[in-house]
Design goal:
With 329 residues, the chain is mostly helical. 65% of the residues lie in helices and 1% in strands. Helix 9 crosses helix 11, helix 11 packs antiparallel against helix 13 and helix 11 packs parallel to helix 16.
């Protein structure tokens, strides 16, 4: 086990120095140690650095493992009425909290210009994922909280609603044609595993942008250049500096629109409901909050489509300007 831990950490460092951002680095390392070549998962995580679109919330060393965990279990495997992903995801988050004291990027990162505090979560994420998956504790969710989660999950199933999956539905993905994608986003429900954190519709929008536009950074020299700008000044997130900057920046811009539209990017602030309590779930159900959540998924999908169109236009304009016309020679 000790040799495995060092292997995971070594691979994490190797990927970090050539990729530069947390979420795609962790995803790539998880794929490497799992002997998997699903590059689309790295693209799916491309916009998630900096706490989901650089908003400072759920750390990319949490979200990428949750995506891979979702791919393994989807919503198919159940444990006493709740999908297995909910319990295992909570166990992973508790392990992360015990190790790093917070799930939030901005609290891990602090005020440091050089992101030295991000290195440890990135390097420990693969072994944490493996340990959680191998030694899942059924007690990860307290009984009263579990009962509340079961109630809200049953309500959403009845309403045929899953925050992240509905966004991808609106973007013309289908579970029949893209079953792995729909499994991968399973944990993104109710503000990540019903914890009321980042709105899962917003998170899905950021993932969709990465999936459609993401490229894979693979250059230590470019990463060094980005870190130098972080440390000494300059725009480290210029889209020419790192290939993951483009979807991350698009996610950040979308967060500004989302906050203006809905008041916050955080599920609990938007709904006013705590899904870990009987009272919070009752309020959500009795107020028919799912109708508003469904409207949010529609608006997010519309915004994502606009962002993708704009990015395509920018890319075409950039390509055309780089071509020398025969009349100019």
């Amino acid at each position: 086990m000790k040799s495995s831990r060092w292997m995971y950490r070594k691979q994490s460092v190797s990927n970090l120095v050539r990729m530069g951002h947390c979420a795609p680095t962790v995803m790539q390392t998880l794929l490497d140690v799992s002997n998997s070549e699903k590059e689309w998962l790295v693209k799916l995580s491309a916009g998630m650095p900096g706490g989901i679109g650089n908003t400072g919330f759920e750390c990319g060393a949490v979200t990428s493992p949750l995506v891979l965990m979702g791919l393994r279990y989807g919503l198919r495997e159940m444990d006493r009425g709740l999908p297995v992903i909910i319990g295992r995801g909570h166990a992973l988050c508790q392990h992360f909290l015990k190790c790093h004291k917070t799930l939030q990027c901005k609290q891990i990162r602090g005020k440091d210009r050089f992101p030295k505090h991000c290195i440890r979560p990135v390097c420990l994420a693969p072994e944490m994922f493996m340990a959680t998956d191998a030694n899942h504790s059924p007690a990860a969710i307290p009984p009263e909280t579990r009962e509340s989660y079961l109630r809200i999950y049953s309500h959403l199933v009845e309403k045929n609603f899953h925050c992240a999956k509905i966004v991808f539905d609106h973007l013309q993905y289908t579970a029949a044609e893209h079953p792995e994608l729909f499994d991968a986003v399973s944990a993104f429900i109710g503000g990540t595993l019903f914890m009321g954190m980042t709105c899962s519709a917003f998170a899905a929008g950021v993932m969709a942008i990465g999936l459609r536009t993401g490229e894979i950074e693979n250059s230590p020299s470019r990463v060094i250049r980005m870190l130098s700008r972080m440390t000494f000044g300059g725009n480290a997130f210029d889209e020419s500096i790192n290939k993951f900057n483009r979807p991350m920046n698009a996610g950040y811009r979308m967060s500004k629109w989302f906050t203006k539209e809905f008041g916050s990017t955080q599920c609990r602030a938007i709904t006013g409901c705590d899904f870990s309590t009987h009272t919070g779930v009752s309020k959500y159900i009795e107020s028919n909050c799912v109708t508003r959540c469904r409207e949010i998924t529609e608006k997010v999908a519309e915004r994502v489509q606009k962002i993708l169109t704009d990015l395509d236009d920018i890319q075409r304009a950039s390509t055309n300007s780089a071509v020398i016309s025969p009349l100019q020679t």
